Amino acid sequence: MNNYRSVQMYEVLTGLTPGGVSSPVRKFNPYPISMECGEGSTIIDVDGNHYFDMCMAYGPLILGHSHPEVIKAVSAQMKKGTIFGAPSAPEMELMNLIRNNVPCADMVRLTNSGTESTMHAIRLARGFTGKNKIVKMNGGFHGSHDSVLVYSEEPGSPAVPSSPGVPDATASNTYSVDYNDIWQLENVLKRNDVAAVIMEPIMGNMGVILPEKGYLQNVRKLTRTYGALLIFDEVITGFRSSEGGAQKIYNVIPDLCTMGKIIGGGFPIGALAGRREIMENLAPNGKIYLAGTFSGNPISASAGRVTIELMNGKHRMLSENTESLVLSLRDSLEDRGVKGSVVHEGSMFQVFFDIDEPRNAAEARKADEKKFEGLFRFMLSNGVYIPPSRFEVNFLSIAHDKRALNKFSETFDSYLRSIAT
């Protein structure tokens, strides 16, 4: 493929922004590909190369690129105004859709990103409970704010910063335990200083890692027993796993949840939702502060409303398509004699080379990095765009037809043939 203009743009971008990208996950060597446009399940780069897109902007585009109904809604709202600094009908309609679909959502507050939503959820939990400590899962990602850019060298011990610039004192207010290990979690909660457990109900930033049977139910029981709030980070799974997110699938209702991605229909957004008695503590009703100039932006809200309305009832179709694709990938691994696993939930999946299905982040990290990098480059050179990192996730949309799925499956099989011994 000719990538002349991508190279030129990368050379300019590296002088404008660190690494030439606005988010580090987009960087890969020798240079990232710059995109020009997208339609349905296809994206086209600045050099005119076409790719079937399995990244889908890391999850928001469940309807596919440039869906005509989303474009129509956004265009109509732009003619009315782009931002008011006051309540508007689109944000009211979007919040009402969230409340009517998401089990825990008695009340909703819109924000501008998933990072903002988790940051505010943690502040709200601390203010409501009067406790300072939180618990997160090792490998769980909840945005790029100080409380969650941490890790524990020993599960259950106070965390340390995972990035320079995060104060030790801030990191020490977070404990980190392994996902799917209920005993580690209980040992921490017994200290009775934990305001909240924040977790992805289905881990989506170490590939896809599923909860073992009964795990989420036991987390729910323990948080109630020890007086900690349960926060589900459904930025990825919200309106993707089902109309009500993963909490509806597993019938485990958290105290609070955070959302993003799909609820903006491809535009920047986030949301914090939860029990009324907790949410009422947010300003202006309560003393816990949360504000944002662009919060409730009518453009994002209009796109999100249309996306949710069009998706309601179509999650089953997406899940069936993903299941069919995953079975094909698993058959290819077996047929070519390449050890690995393919884990999926709903319309998201990831391939782990050289390991069985992981149950936590430590096991996911053992997957063969070089084989995955080889897969990424092979796919890219054959017109399929997947996330560059083995810890990200492939996403399907309703725009992925049989042609797109067959292309992925056949290219995957070709790669396995090239590495099989």
Structural account:
The protein is built from 14 helices and 16 strands. It folds into three domains: 1-48, no CATH class; 68-311, Type I PLP-dependent aspartate aminotransferase-like (Major domain) (Aspartate Aminotransferase, domain 2), CATH 3.40.640; 314-421, Aspartate Aminotransferase, domain 1 (Alpha-Beta Complex). The two termini are 28 Å apart. By secondary structure, the protein is α/β, with parallel strands linked by helices. The model has no long low-confidence stretch (mean pLDDT 96). It has a seven-stranded mixed beta sheet with strand order 4-12-11-10-9-5-8, with helices on both faces. Strands 1-2-3-15 form a four-stranded mixed beta sheet. It has a three-stranded antiparallel beta sheet with strand order 13-14-16. The radius of gyration is 21 Å and the shape is globular. The protein has helices at residues 4-16, 68-80, 89-101, 114-129, 168-171, 182-189, 215-225, 245-250, 276-279, 298-311, 315-336, 361-364, 369-381, 402-419, and strands at residues 35-39, 42-45, 50-53, 107-111, 133-137, 150-151, 160-161, 174-177, 194-199, 229-233, 256-259, 270-274, 340-345, 348-353, 384-385, 394-395. 38% of the residues lie in helices and 16% in strands.
